[in-house]
Design a protein that fits this description.
Two copies of one chain form a homodimer. Chain A folds into two domains: about 50 residues, RecR Domain 1 (Helicase, Ruva Protein, domain 3), CATH 1.10.8.420; about 120 residues, 3-Layer(aba) Sandwich (Dna Topoisomerase Vi A Subunit, Chain: A, domain 2). Chain A contains eight helices and six strands; from the N terminus they run H-H-H-E-E-H-E-H-E-H-E-H-E-H. In chain A, the strands form two sheets. A four-stranded parallel beta sheet of chain A has the order 4-3-5-6. A two-stranded antiparallel ribbon of chain A has the order 1-2. In chain A, helix 5 links the parallel strand 3 and strand 4. In chain A, helix 1 packs across helix 2 and helix 2 crosses helix 3. The N and C termini of chain A lie far apart (about 60 Å). Chains A and B meet through helix 1, helix 2, helix 3, strand 2 and helix 5 of A and helix 1, helix 2, helix 3, strand 2 and helix 5 of B. One zinc ion binds next to helix 4 of chain B.
């Protein structure tokens, strides 16, 4: 973008491009929209960004974003401390929580292994996970709930090996035909897995 | 999105959705990215938003975004005050400036007429334009440089009628074949206009 009549506007368009997926054109469109129609929204966003950047850390136990040393889920005494479900992101954790079917603890990796993108074990929460697995109270089963993508599978493999090396049981979410789907429309790999994992 | 372990995070995801084109999923992705990888970017964006929302107003003469009462372009005494080029947005103005072929003044509508979306003359800068056309020093020619879209053409029509009603000359940017293009690949409407406007 050519510099505009306002340095503050230029700086805003620049700063908006720090957001993932936002290029020069959409940053410019966002800035115009906020200044022309929603200055209140701009100020609210400014406050929310500052509050989040300054007040959010990682939970000491599960590594998810938290405002406290230990997040509410980890602090809940009614949850089974022997079960540790390993997920990639807080959004994945939220999806599992919505099922209401799990009452153990979580560990949030905040990413997945992706060697092709240079994302190795040190870039995601493998080190704090290792500490977590060796801490008290003891974990009896690690449930690998990373995504069923190539990278999620690779991550599950590495975390599973790690858990087994520490003498812990490691299980993986079952693959299979989604509830409510017709076989005709399910991809062949999924059907093959559903056949192999039949029970 | 389900509420997360952090109210600050929830508030940030909400606030990011005030940006045009950003839904719940991408707001969430943006928030994670900033918190996980770019807190510095989050703070810079917060400051840029606040500085822009509090320090940017409209130039009293051309209506574009400006930090001063009158923007640098309008304050430049070397520019011809008799020529007034009417554009839709600051980005359009910047495109014209990059050509280096225009040394008159501008008026930035900050939008375009779009009756189907309920955007009438009062929603864009038609009222300040009317004042501008009647102010001193006098304008001798209004150059209609709105986009060559249906809405831009309708806007040019309305602004042109307005200028002519005030006894001013109103011209439109020429339509024609883009420089460097092969006729074979140019759309027929453009070729028809280029034929009609041949010189
Ligand atoms: Zn936690
Ligand atoms: Zn101006």
């Amino acid at each position: 973008m050519a510099p505009s009549a306002s340095r503050r506007l230029d700086r805003l368009v620049q700063a908006l491009q720090r957001l993932p997926g936002v290029g020069a054109r959409s940053a410019s469109r966002m800035a115009y929209h906020l200044l022309q129609h929603d200055r209140d929204g701009a100020l609210q966003l400014a406050q929310a960004l500052q509050a989040a950047a300054e007040g959010i850390r990682h939970c000491a136990l599960c590594h998810t974003f938290s405002e406290e040393e230990v997040c509410p889920t980890c602090a809940d005494p009614s949850r089974d401390t022997g079960l540790l479900c390993v997920v990639e992101t807080p959004a994945d954790q939220a999806a599992l929580e919505r099922t209401g079917a799990y009452r153990g603890r979580y560990f949030v990796l905040m990413g997945r292994l992706s060697p092709l993108d240079g994302i190795g074990p040190d870039h995601i929460g493998v080190r704090p996970l290792l500490e977590r697995l060796q801490a008290q109270p003891p974990v009896r089963e690690v449930i690998l709930a990373t995504n069923f993508t190539a990278e999620g599978e690779a991550t599950a493999h590495v975390v599973g090996e790690l858990a087994r090396a520490l003498g812990l049981k490691a299980t993986r979410l079952a693959r299979g035909v989604p509830v409510g789907s017709e076989l005709e429309y399910v991809d062949l790999g999924t059907i093959a897995h559903a056949l192999a994992d039949r029970r």
